[in-house]
Protein 1
Amino acid sequence: KDLTPIKSVYQNDFLIGNAVSAADLQGARLELLGMHHNVVTLENAMKPDAMQPTKGGFTFAGADAIVDQALAEGQKVHGHVLVWHQQTPAWMNTSNGSPLSREEALANLKSHIQTVMEHYGNKVISWDVVNEAMNDNPSNPSNWEAALRRSAWYNAIGPDYVEQAFLAAREVLDAHPEWDIKLYYNDYNEDNQNKAEAIYSMVKAINDKYALAHSGKLLIDGVGMQAHYSLNTNPDNVRLSLEKFISLGVEVSITELDIQAGTDAQLTEKQANAQGYLYAQLFKLYKAHAAHIARVTLWGLNDAASWRASASPLIFDKDLQAKPAYYGIINPD
Ligand code: XIL
C-alpha cells in the first residue's frame, strides 16, 4: 500500500520486470505489478509449445491478450522464448523420436522465429532468441561447442543452431529498421564460472564472426542471466559472471531472478533475513553496473505463485505482504 515502488528506486538504473500469466493482470495482483514493475515477461504463454503446437498452426490468442493488456497498463514486454529444449513441440526437431534432417529442422527453426517475431513486431523490447543451450558446469569451457547441451535442436542441426537462430532473428530485424528490439542469449547457473566461460566463449565466437562480415555490428545484443539462485549463491561469482558478460560489449539483463530459501513454503526468520540480505547484495551489485544492465526481472509476483513455491524464493509472501527481500531491494545499502 504505502510501499516505495521498486521501479522508482531504480528509475535511473534499469527496468524492473516480473513474469506474468493472465491471472496476474487482475485485481490486487495487477495493482502490485503496476506499482513496482515497468516490464513483463510472459511466464509461459510465448513458449514454442504455446505459439505453434502443430506445424504451421500458430495459436497467438492467449499471448496476444496478455501482451495487449500489459501494454495498455503501461508495461513494456520482453519476448520469451523462441528456441529452447523445453516446452517445445516434438515435431519441430524430431520425427518418431529421431532427429529431423538438418534441412527440415533449420526450416522449422527459421519459420518459427520469423512468424513469431513478425507477429509481435515492435510490441516487445527484446527477445530471448535461444535459451539454455549450455551444459551445466562444463569441464572444458573454452571449447564451447563441446559444452553445448545435446538437445533435440543440437542433434538435428548441429552446434551452429544457436548462430542460425540469431541469424534468422537478425534478418527479421534488418527488414524492419523502425523496430527497436534487442536479441538475447539467456541461460541459468550462469554464476558457475565454468558455465559462464562457455557462454562467454560462444557469444564471443558468434559475434566476432558476424562483426567481420558486417562492419563490426553485433549479432547477439545481450546476455540474459536467469539468476535462479539459493542462499548458497556466492555474490562474488555473480559479479565475476556479470563482469565477464559485460566485457563482451553486449548489454546484460537479469531475466528470472529468485532465491530459494526454504523447503516447506514458509521461511524461518533467519532464512527470510538471509534471503533479504542476498537480494540486497545483488541489487547493490546490479546498481554498480547499471550502465550495462537493461532490466532486472523477478520470476513471479509472490511466493505462492512461484514455479518453486515450496522454496519461498520471491519478495512478497503468499498474502502479497512484503518480505525482508523487498526491503533488501529498495534499501540495498
Ligand atoms: C518455468 C515456468 O515458471 C513454469 O511455470 C513452467 O512450468 C516451466 O517453466 N527457465 C526459463 C523459464 O527460461 O521459462 C522457466 O519457467 C524457468 C527456468
Protein 2
Amino acid sequence: DHLINQIAAGEVVERPASALKELLENSLDAGATSISVDLAEGGSKLIRVADDGCGIAKDELALALARHATSKISSLEDLQRVRSLGFRGEGLASLASISDLVLTSRAHDASHAWRVEADNGRIGEPEPASLTTGTVIEARDLYFNVPARRKFLKTPATEFAHCEEAFKRIALSNPAVQWTLSHNGRAQWRLAPQSAQARAAALLGDAFGENALAIDETAATLRLSGFAGSPTESRAGRDAQYFFVNGRFVRDKVVAHAIREAYRDVLHLDRQPAYALYLELDPEAVDVNVHPTKTEVRFRDSQAIYRFVFHCLSKALASTSA
Ligand code: ADP
Ligand code: MG
C-alpha cells in the first residue's frame, strides 16, 4: 500500500516543478500576499515555500498531509473555484510520500506555530515551533525512495528551468502578490506587488514595456485582458507567450492560432508575437480536467473563443496602425 502510494505520487509529482506548482497554488489558496521560494539542486535537494497565508491549525496539520484531505470544498463558491483551478486534494500527501517533508504553520489565532514531519510517509506528532505568520513547507531529497522516477530527472539546471517556468506562470497571473525565488542560495527573482503590466515587463522583458498593446474586452460571458507585445518589437516572442484561462496557465492551439492570425491579418506580419493574456469565462464553458497535471483545457465552443480572441487582438492592433 505504501509502495503504491509512492508510485502514484511519482506520477503526480512528475518532477520538482510539479511539486512547486502545487505548493504555490496552496499558498495562494491560503490568501498569501507574500510568497518566498528557495530551491536547491533544481528542487530535487530542496523545495522550500514560505507564505503569509491563513496558516493551518495544530489539529489540522496531520490531516493536511493525508490523502484526499482537501479543505477547499465547503461552499458552492468554493466548488466553483475548485472546479476552475482543478484541485485534487492530494498535493501535499503525494509530496510527503516521496520526500522528507516538514510542515510548519501558524494559524492566525494561534499563540505560536506547530510543525509536523512526514518521514517516509509516516506523519509524526505536532511539535511547538516558532514562526511569525503563515506556513512553511520544506521538502528535501525528492524521490529518495522512488529510484525509477529519480532516474528520469534531468540536470539541476534543467529542473531549475522547469521550476522557474512554473514560478513565472503563477507570478504572472498574481501580480498583486510579492514573490521571491532563490536557487542554491542565490536570489533569482524579487518581485514587488505591482500592476499586471509591470509584472509582465519584469518577468518577460521589453516587449511588455510602454509600447505594449493593452487589451481589455468583454463580450457576453467572455473577458480578455492583458498585453500583447508591441508591434514594433522585432524579436520573436515565442518564449513570451502566456495565456491564462480563469487564472490558470494554458497552452491552446486554437488561441495561439487566433492571436497569430490577427497579427497576420492586420499588420501583415507573420511572426511569433509576445503576449500575456488572461481569458475569463464561465467555468461551465471550459473543461479543465482534461489531464490534471497538464496545461490543456477543452472549450465547449472553441470556435467562439477563436473569434473572440481574434476580434480582441485585431481591434487592438488596428488601433495602433491607424
Ligand atoms: P488541496 O490543495 O487540493 O486541498 P493539498 O494536499 O495540496 O490539497 O493540501 C491539503 C490541505 O492542506 C489544503 O486543503 C489546505 O487546507 C492545507 N494547506 C496546504 N498548504 C497550505 C498553506 N500554504 N496554507 C494554508 N493551508 C494549507
Ligand atoms: Mg493543493
